[in-house]
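Folding follows sequence. Below is one example:
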Amino acid sequence: MISSVRRAGPETPELAEVPPPSTVRPPDPLKRLRRLRWGVRASLTLGVLASLAANVLHAEPSLVGRCIAGWPPVALLVTVELISRVPVHHVLLSIARWVSTSAVAGIAAIISYQHMSGVAARYGESAMSSALVPISVDGLVVVASVCLVEVGGRIRALEESAPVSLPVVEDSPVVPAPVDEVAPVPAPVTVDVVETAPEQAPEPAPKQAATSTQRTTRKAGTAHSRKPRTSKKEALTAYLDAIGPDDTRTDAELIRTYAPLVGLHENTARRYLASWRAAQADVSADAPSVESADAPVAVAA
């Protein structure tokens, strides 16, 4: 009896499982700096409130005196906020802004130190404590101010260097174009055509020659239908010749009357009227000479 022996092949090494990619996004530095700015702003507000409280407690117990004492810390807070948010693109303007801020900070520090040391001494603190407590408050205000300006500059730099994100347009699904159904082509039909001889067209009847009488009549009718054409100048001259000698109208009135009738412009009609007047003058000048030539000549006896 032969038994089959199964040989085991070489064992394949098991591949180590690759961990899935991490879905945790790295922290955004811009968001982190913005959260940090809120913390720095809170620290600055705390120091300004401490200085403001000391100034108000040490001021005269009146509304005007407390407002005057509380103004320097508020001015310092607004100044630091402005220089941390508004960028400057000119060196001279930046220098002027820092000099002004330093002046405001110095005035606020001196006034706050006097008021806070007086309040600490009034409420039982020792001379050393009264001298050191104002320094701690002013130091907190200075550090918070510098940090706020630095964080604001870093945020501004990141915002300017951040790439502009364009809106993502999703690809619309591809719709297949409608396929026109092709109508089945019918099979060609064979038709037997019987050729027939073409029919001959009837010959046209010969035209009758026109007689000489008809041609003569046609020419006579055509001659009677044609009328002689008269020019506009001749038509105007005919109208002017028909004017009687007792007509008192001026040349302008004659032109306005007869120019539209013959279709002439007033300037052209005026020129034709002038030539007609000249012709009438020549005729009247020749008339006496003709009469004197026709008269009998008396002969001396």
Summary: The CA atoms of residues 87 and 153 lie 8 Å apart. The two ends are 202 Å apart (CA to CA).
